[in-house]
Specification:
Blueprint: H1 2-23, E1 42-45, E2 50-53, H2 59-76, E3 82-84, E4 92-95, E5 117-122, E6 125-130, H3 135-148, E7 151-154, E8 157-159, E9 166-169, E10 173-176, E11 182-185, H4 193-198, H5 235-240, E12 245-247, E13 254-259, H6 264-280, E14 286-288, H7 301-310, H8 314-331, E15 338-343, E16 360-365, H9 381-396, E17 400-405, H10 422-431, E18 434-440, H11 453-465, H12 471-483, H13 487-499, H14 529-544, H15 550-570, H16 580-593
Parallel strand pairs: 2-3, 2-4, 4-6, 11-18, 14-15, 15-16, 16-17, 17-18
Antiparallel strand pairs: 1-9, 5-6, 5-10, 7-8, 12-13
Helix pairs in contact: 1-14, 2-3, 6-8, 11-12, 12-13, 13-14, 15-16
């Protein structure tokens, strides 16, 4: 009975698709393509070249020279010797700061800062150098990527061409200084050191970069978030000094949810712990003094008076943090330490009086925003107030950071179609004087990488380094390597679902997408019968490609999970009401086979249950999920 109904539905949908295509009511989206490159004069790096460094080279510069040597050997089979700049050679690859500076080439080195990249051909020689800490290493990876075709797509997927001749453009004159001083995301590959260096992330929360051989990184002394929650002040402190407890706006009573920032004892406790954290972490540049992750903040008379005067609870937080920052600057004058705080939820609105000290970082968090429309899209009611807050913080802060979000935390394996806004939003941040960004994604992706986490983290890294980068080119190159000859089908899928995300419903209302939304919401994507039929055919064709390696087929099948996850939420196709239970079991089995063991953010309750309730959508298949009533009801 059920198989007959399913066959009927499948045939009906296919006929509808063919009929609509014949009438011209539906058009297949074009496959994204790379633009042809103009022909340029080339020069060859031959076996008579040497790699030149200085005897005084830093560890990062030495590593850069050895990295260049290693990859050129891997590409060509030839090992170029590394020599000191006391020798002169006709053909040189000059790496780092050497005696060639001022004679072979000139450079405003101060303009490069710590991370700027400088690559230039000078006669038969090539100069590859950069800023004081990480610039030369970044320059080597840029040279290998932009001029020799090397790619570091994931921690396990590198493309290093094997060539008969190492040819590069004869006229290179390239300088890039990143706008962002702090660049971080999570996912899986950013936890790998070489991937992070090659793709120029420098945050130390997830990337293991705290090493002189890679120039170190930008790091926090102690925790980097919610440090006023069990870190810089503890329950023991609250017990010993009850005046430090907040008079909670929600509880109406003294609470350990938040500290009272008007209490002098709170300041003393927090400052002493700030000093202790900094002393234990002598190489770190930032200390976080950030609010707890709840909104039961203090509304005692003293705190409320400051809120009223400032027009925002952020005013009291900033006054508190400024005091900490002054004390830190006085105690550690040689370390150039910044004190970091949040503009988050109840502190998101900028204060009307107090401004951040020069050594204070304000991290503005976009948690309430819509992530399917650009932040400056005036049609999107969800983002208007954020843009106003961004503008106000930009006017008063000289070190404004962003904490942004790039996944669905309640459905890690469902579609999160933010592809169209990733670059526009990055440009908006940069245009508003943002100098540091953490793109929080699926930080538990090792257990739940059922969407496009590897692709998304790669694109985010490219955008963090250069907001004007060619995203289309990076998408195509990544998919070609990751999915092999199935890439065209995956790219068509991504193109279509991007077009179908965040549009208007039948009543003309714009639909939005937040980071905790039901996957079936129309803001995620609104598809008609033809769209669903076409996408089913794309994934079927992708899996049927006969030239795929086992790894590429694995990638295709794992990325398709997000599509099947969406169909389960919509109860469409094989997840129709008759066939739902058996299809859900198949999806569950495939998720486990593909290494997916987590549904949502958090502790063990977010893990995939051993025996989920298969009449519910997959977002409830976690250990902490409670079967809905009536069965299959969506939340």
């Amino acid at each position: 009975m059920s198989s007959g109904i399913n066959a009927f539905l499948s045939g009906f949908f296919s006929l509808m698709f063919i009929f609509s295509s014949w009438l011209g009511l539906w058009k297949e989206p074009a496959t994204p393509t790379l633009q042809p490159q103009e022909a340029v004069e080339m020069m060859e790096i031959t076996s008579d070249y040497v790699i030149v460094t200085s005897p005084e080279a830093t560890q990062a510069e030495q590593n850069a020279a050895e990295t260049l040597q290693g990859y050129l050997r891997q590409m060509s089979g030839v090992t170029l010797p590394i020599v000191f700049d006391s020798e002169n050679h006709e053909k040189e690859l000059v790496v780092g700061v050497t005696s060639r500076e001022g004679s072979l080439y000139t450079l405003d080195r101060a303009s490069l800062g710590n991370e700027g990249v400088f690559i230039k051909t000078a006669g038969d020689s090539v100069v590859i150098t950069g800023g004081a800490l990480r610039g030369t290493l970044y320059a080597v990876y840029t040279f290998l990527e932009d001029y020799l075709g090397c790619r570091w797509f994931t921690k396990d997927l590198q493309v290093i061409p094997e060539v008969a001749a190492l040819e590069i453009p004869a006229a290179i004159d390239y300088t890039h200084v990143p706008v962002l001083e702090y660049r971080e995301t999570d996912w899986v590959s950013p936890r790998d050191r070489e991937w992070s260096v090659a793709n120029k992330l420098n945050g130390l929360v997830y990337s293991p970069l705290d090493d002189a051989s890679v120039g170190g990184g930008m790091g926090y002394a102690g925790s980097f978030a919610h440090t006023l929650q069990g870190g810089l002040i503890t329950n023991a402190d609250y017990d010993a000094f009850p005046e430090t407890q907040a008079l909670g706006i929600k509880s109406g009573a003294r609470t350990k949810d938040h500290p009272c920032l008007s209490s002098e004892k709170t300041y003393e406790i927090v400052l002493n712990n700030v000093f202790a954290w900094l002393d234990r972490n002598p190489t770190r540049q930032i200390i976080s003094v950030t609010q707890p992750d709840n909104q039961n903040y203090c509304v005692c008379n003293a705190c409320r008076a400051v809120y009223d005067a400032e027009g925002s609870p952020a005013g009291l937080m900033l006054r508190f943090v400024n005091r900490i920052a002054d004390a830190v600057a006085e105690r550690y004058p040689e370390r150039d330490i910044a004190v970091d705080t949040f503009a988050y939820q109840y502190t998101r609105k900028a204060p009307g009086i107090t401004v951040p000290r020069d050594n204070v970082i304000v991290r503005l968090c976009s948690i309430e925003c819509c992530f399917v429309h650009a932040l400056n899209d005036t049609r999107c009611s969800e983002n208007i107030s954020f843009m106003q807050d961004l503008g106000e913080w930009s006017e008063i802060s000289n070190r404004l950071y962003i904490w942004d979000y790039t996944t669905n935390y309640g459905n890690f394996n469902g579609p999160f179609n933010n592809w169209a806004v990733m670059q526009p939003n990055m440009k908006i941040f940069v245009e508003n004087n943002v100098v540091g960004i953490y793109e929080e994604g699926n930080y538990q992706a090792a257990e739940s990488n059922g969407e496009f986490g590897d692709l998304r983290s790669y694109i985010l890294a490219k955008l963090l380094w250069d907001a004007d980068t060619d995203v289309n080119k990076h998408m195509i190159e990544f998919c070609n390597a990751y999915y092999g000859d199935a890439a065209e089908y995956v790219l068509r899928y991504l193109t279509l679902v991007t077009e179908k995300a965040g549009n208007k419903n039948l009543w003309g209302q714009l639909q939005h997408m937040g980071i905790f939304d039901n996957v079936g919401n129309d803001g995620v994507m609104k598809l008609n019968v033809n769209d669903i039929t076409y996408i089913d055919s794309l994934w079927a064709d992708a899996k049927a490609v006969g030239t795929l390696s086992e790894e590429q087929l694995f990638h295709v099948r794992r990325s398709e999970i997000s599509w099947r996850y969406w169909k389960a939420y919509k109860k469409t196709r094989e997840f129709n009401i008759v066939q739902y239970y058996s299809s859900a079991q198949e999806l569950y089995a495939d998720m486990k086979e593909l290494g997916i063991s987590r549904i949502r953010e958090g502790d063990a309750k977010g893990l995939l249950a051993e025996k989920p309730y298969f009449l519910d959508p997959p977002g409830r298949w976690n250990v902490g999920g409670v079967p809905s009533f009536p069965p299959g009801m969506y939340y």
